[in-house]
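Design request, tokens follow.
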């Protein structure tokens, strides 16, 4: 402890006396150190693990200030007073560095090591296995899209331990970025939305987007190839979603009225579908968008850090890996600094791309679920999907198709800019459910979207300030704060929908 204080104090003095005008050393810290030891302690606690990085920076600066280590030889010969001070200081730094671990372990907040015991068999269970574990019966359906992707659709046809029942209402649940059908069942009966809907009389279908754990196959493309991962949410909206909806209609009859419930990217693909293939506005009964993502002017997610590179697709592809957006690469760690060093989440959370990109809310987070969550997310997403989102951020939040650059856009779309999704063509009744602390779906953007919907049902804001993007799936209070309202909206939607559809006969 003392050593650290002395070190930092010396750094302070040296910096103050030098002509160093760089802003790398926080001024307020200078005062704090000169002031009270306890304040240093608090500072360290507050900064957590990032202080180690800070310390390395200090060392680098000092090293460059004094020149390379080989100058010690020179100094050993004719060493003046100034040199001696500098050498002494260098020795302090080296000594401190040697004892670095001791220093940090004694004052930095203890990293709570999460016991990731592999004991819980649920960690490795598939969605159907989880559903069986929870006492429900499930079905798996395989669908091939018109561009050859082989998708798995999961289904919970009936409520718990009950056989065939009278006709049930239909709900299609679509997970978000990096998610899968497991997202809806992980919290278990009474808590997971899939079960809540099932118990409320719905025939629940759970989609899986191309490329995720359950849809990682193609009739001709190898999932290890770029050709397989060469897609964005646009392709999902044009091929996966129609295939899934058509399939459900085929199974249940053409007059089935599907309630679409999407989370995050699951809402993006709905908006993209309804604005481009407008016939689906007639097919679905209503849309319910949890944490809706379309316009992205005010996002807080580290995706925005990628935005400034997003006009250089080749570079981003190199940076992120051209195919699947893989969770354990250096870039993710770079992105995670944004979330984790500020909030000092524990490592297991910081190493997971879903939490990094979408945030984490300590209070609403049910720690019991963590091992199972880590076993199921991220379930897979293409790098191009991330780039597509990053492009929107850079282009003033425009909800638009993939940007290939001016030349590429001419080839693809015949215009220098990618076409915006014509949101005004969405005539399906849609309810938006958002929260204030959502890193991906800000108030401003969701309100902007709501204002453009032809048949808005309601914009419901979750009455809890801290509620964030992934809380819609797994928060302790999600049933009370979100699902209760959602069920109400689903009921209300019924009477409203049909009249709306008839009076707004646009296609
Ligand atoms: C010590 O720090 C506190 C708050 O940072 C400040 O108000 C106070 O003036 C400081 N005292 C001295 C002697 O610098
Ligand atoms: C310092 O000098 C030694 C030999 O005296 C050499 O091996 C080493 O690479 C030098 N280091 C630097 C940073 O120049
Ligand atoms: C983690 O596991 C070890 C040994 O299995 C046990 O001693 C320790 O108390 C556990 N820690 C927590 C926080 O559960
Ligand atoms: C990737 O997709 C774009 C358009 O979607 C297409 O022009 C390009 O040829 C594809 N590249 C590969 C390698 O499949
Ligand atoms: C947390 O998750 C566990 C396992 O699903 C569940 O038994 C428990 O009730 C949950 N706690 C809260 C507060 O939701």
């Amino acid at each position: 402890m003392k050593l650290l204080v002395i070190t930092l104090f010396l750094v302070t003095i040296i910096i103050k006396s030098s002509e160093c005008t760089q802003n790398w050393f926080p001024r307020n810290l200078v005062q704090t150190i000169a002031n009270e030891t306890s304040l240093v302690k608090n500072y360290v606690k507050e900064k957590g693990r990032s202080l180690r990085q800070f310390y390395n920076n200090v060392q680098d600066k000092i090293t460059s200030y004094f020149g390379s280590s080989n100058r010690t030889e020179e100094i050993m010969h004719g060493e003046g007073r100034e040199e001696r001070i500098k050498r002494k200081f260098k020795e302090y730094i080296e000594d401190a560095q040697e004892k670095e671990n001791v220093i940090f372990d004694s004052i930095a907040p203890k990293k709570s090591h999460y016991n990731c015991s592999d004991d819980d068999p649920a960690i490795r269970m598939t969605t159907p296995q989880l559903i069986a574990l929870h006492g429900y019966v499930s079905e798996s359906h395989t669908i091939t899209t018109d561009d050859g992707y082989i998708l798995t659709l999961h289904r919970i046809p009936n409520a718990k331990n009950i056989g065939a029942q009278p006709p049930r209402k239909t709900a299609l649940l679509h997970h978000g970025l990096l998610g899968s059908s497991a997202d809806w069942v992980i919290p278990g009966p009474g808590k997971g939305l899939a079960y809540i809907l099932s118990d409320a009389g719905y025939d629940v279908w759970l989609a899986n987007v191309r490329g995720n754990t359950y849809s990682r196959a193609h009739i001709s493309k190898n999932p290890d190839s770029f050709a397989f991962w060469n897609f964005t949410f646009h392709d999902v909206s044009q091929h996966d979603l129609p295939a899934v909806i058509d399939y459900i209609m085929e199974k249940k009859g053409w007059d089935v009225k599907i309630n679409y419930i999407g989370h995050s990217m699951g809402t993006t693909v709905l908006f993209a579908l309804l604005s481009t293939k407008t016939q689906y506005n007639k097919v679905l009964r209503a849309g319910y968008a949890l944490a809706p993502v379309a316009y992205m002017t005010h996002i807080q997610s580290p995706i925005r850090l990628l935005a400034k590179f997003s006009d250089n697709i080749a570079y981003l592809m190199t940076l992120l890996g051209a195919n699947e957006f893989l969770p354990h690469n250096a870039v993710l760690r770079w992105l995670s600094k944004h979330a984790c060093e500020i909030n000092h989440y524990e490592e297991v959370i910081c190493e997971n791309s879903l939490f990094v990109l979408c945030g984490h809310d300590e209070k609403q987070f049910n720690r019991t679920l963590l091992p199972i969550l880590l076993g199921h997310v991220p379930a897979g997403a293409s790098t191009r999907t991330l780039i597509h989102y990053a492009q929107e951020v850079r282009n003033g939040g425009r909800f638009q198709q993939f940007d290939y650059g001016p030349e590429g856009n001419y080839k693809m779309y015949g215009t220098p800019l990618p076409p915006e999704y014509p949101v005004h063509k969405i005539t399906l009744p849609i309810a938006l459910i958002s929260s204030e602390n959502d890193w991906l779906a800000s108030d401003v953007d969701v309100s902007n979207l709501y204002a453009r919907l032809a048949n808005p049902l309601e914009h419901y804001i979750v009455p809890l300030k801290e509620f964030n993007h992934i809380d819609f799936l797994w928060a302790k209070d999600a049933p009370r704060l979100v699902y209760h309202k959602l069920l109400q909206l689903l009921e209300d939607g019924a009477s409203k929908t049909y009249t709306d559809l008839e009076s707004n006969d646009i296609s």
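Comment from the thread starter after seeing the answer: thanks! The two ends are 71 Å apart (CA to CA).
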